[in-house]
From TrEMBL:
Reactions catalysed: a quinone + NADH + 5 H(+)(in) = a quinol + NAD(+) + 4 H(+)(out)
A GO term for molecular function: quinone binding
Pfam families from the UniProt entry: Complex1_30kDa (PF00329)
Gene: nuoC
Keywords: Cell membrane, Membrane, NAD, Quinone, Translocase, Transport
Biased composition, class Basic and acidic residues, residue ranges: 153-166
Annotated protein name in UniProt: NADH-quinone oxidoreductase subunit C
Membrane topology of this protein: Peripheral membrane protein
PROSITE patterns per the UniProt record, alphabetical: COMPLEX1_30K
Residues covered by the NADH:ubiquinone oxidoreductase 30kDa subunit domain: 34-155
Length: 173
């Protein structure tokens, strides 16, 4: 019998109650939101439940929403896949903007180690319990997080970025 999204939703609500919400089917991905304090329990439940079997973490990333209220300025998004039924699920967990932190899932999915380090590197989200949370792509000396919306897109002081050399002039010459 095929795994239905209603079955996933019912099992999650039965287990976690109102801490899981905003269920939505968008094309082939079933989406939901989970409170950040239960995210490891939700991911572990989806992985270990014998009917659900979401055994593969496809992706983990961060999103910055600077215009949201303080406790929803960042989100960590998890994409899981059930290969047996070819079902995908997206879980979004919002976290505080002044102190963005959430528990690690690198002890549940080993591949989350690199993904969490990348998310920390670009968004500054602290993954509590991560075995080696440090920058992975940017320099260790860097004090900012380049994927945050307040990070400038280009250094205005660079002289090698003269618009004339890239065909971006307003006057035809």
């Amino acid at each position: 019998m095929a795994l239905e999204t209603t079955e996933i939703q019912e099992k999650l609500i039965e287990t976690f109650g109102s801490k899981v919400l905003a269920f939505n089917q968008d094309r082939d991905i079933f989406s939901l939101e989970a409170d950040s304090d239960i995210i490891t329990a939700v991911v572990l439940f989806l992985k270990n439940d014998p009917a659900l079997r979401f055994h593969f973490l496809t992706d983990l990333c961060g999103v910055h929403y600077p215009d949201n209220e303080e406790n929803k300025q960042f989100a960590v998004v998890y994409h899981l896949h059930n290969w047996y039924e070819n079902k995908r699920i997206r879980i979004k967990s919002f976290i505080n903007g002044s102190k963005p932190e959430i528990k690690t899932i690198s002890n549940i999915f080993l591949c989350a180690n690199w993904m969490e380090r990348e998310t920390y590197d670009f968004f500054g989200i602290n993954f509590i319990g991560h075995p080696q949370l440090k920058r992975i792509l940017n320099m260790d000396e860097m004090i900012s997080f380049p994927m945050r919306k307040e990070f400038p897109m280009e250094d205005s002081g660079r002289t090698d970025k003269d618009d004339r050399y890239f065909g971006r002039t307003t006057i035809n010459q």
